[in-house]
Write a structure and sequence with these properties.
Helix content: 40-55%
Strand order of the largest sheet: 3-2-1-4-5-6-10
Strand content: 15-25%
Bound molecules: nicotinamide-adenine-dinucleotide
Number of domains: 1
Distance between the termini: 48 Å
Number of helices: 13
CATH class: Alpha Beta
Order of helices and strands: EHEHEHEHHEHEEHEEHEEHEHHHH
CATH architecture: 3-Layer(aba) Sandwich
Structural class: alpha/beta
Number of strands: 12
CATH superfamily: NAD(P)-binding Rossmann-like Domain
Shape: globular
Length: 347
Amino acid sequence: MKYVLVTGGCGFMGSHFIRRLYTRYPEYRIVNLDLLTYAGNPENLKDLEQAEAVKAPAERRYDHIQGDICDSQLVDRILEGKSFDLVVHFAAESHVDRSIFNFRDFIRTNVEGTRVVLEAARTHKIPRTVHISTDEVYGNVPEGMSTEEAPLNPSNPYAASKAAADMLARTYASVYGLPVFIVRSGNNYGPNQYPEKLIPLSITNLMSGGTIPIHGSGTHVRSWVHVDDFARAVDLIAHHDAQFDIFNISGEHRSNLEIIESLATHFGKDMAAHIVTVGDRPAADFRYAPESSKIERVLGWKRERALEEALPATAQWYTDNRAWWESVKARKEFVDHYEKQSKAQWY
Ligand SMILES: NC(=O)c1ccc[n+]([C@@H]2O[C@H](COP(=O)([O-])OP(=O)(O)OC[C@H]3O[C@@H](n4cnc5c(N)ncnc54)[C@H](O)[C@@H]3O)[C@@H](O)[C@H]2O)c1
């Protein structure tokens, strides 16, 4: 048995990564440390929970521990005693809009929480740690592409907290010799994404006949990666034999309006009837453009899911799993935040 700690595994990307590890590596025993904030949803891994529930405790390969990555004693308790081979750190506050309202929570979880996870990895001599960063750390890239050597230039509270965390991971590698990989990906999309983010919000609002709030001109460009491609990349990185490395993961460039137009077409709806322009985020980044030739060259990763096929497939997942998103969108927490988000009330 090999032990793997994943943080934030009840969220969107962490849950896809855990399912991939669970399915592909029968020798792995996965511990998922997730606080279950508003964004965490145990339903995302219900299939694993059900498969595990019928097994004797000694046979179980997946455990969710509800707890905070900032709780250093808890993280220590999880890592001590058993020999963990890998830590993959997803847990974060992840929504840019919310970071403008509440910078403090982002510093606590994304910076202090990352420090706790890295320190525990160092103390317990974990042979490999993967830190999930983001392409937002590069800031606005009006033209050209960001390679892994590009300077970090974050311009919103979320990106600033992630850039700080990214630097901490680098510092743990250089000062303490912690074996660590940093992953900077473009925007992910796919099943189980919390419906405040552009793609699931647009799909579910189109399905229910609602409007879609567009920030500013809607022409901001993002690099869109399907979560399956992302999980495969992190799997390759987690098994890469090196002491330290940074990898970008890039997707296909589309503006927000182009994404919504494709979705409206999928549902046979008129986009113009569904969008409402609201104020832009303060200091909004116009374009992100991570360049991923390094992971292609070093690890042989290639994007397999194209938007043309994977965006309609994603829309179909939300169509087939209406109960999943309806229950999330019915929560007071979602309703209260959406009220602010749809009016572009930033502070
Ligand atoms: N979503 C994207 O497009 C994207 C792109 C690049 C990088 N990232 C990064 O990938 C990671 C995962 O993003 P996501 O979209 O899946 O996020 P998400 O918001 O869907 O999930 C975050 C998870 O972390 C958990 N969590 C939050 N605070 C915690 C704490 N203090 N202790 C323990 N658990 C806590 C939540 O309960 C939730 O399950 C984040 O680090 C994010 O910065 C996201």
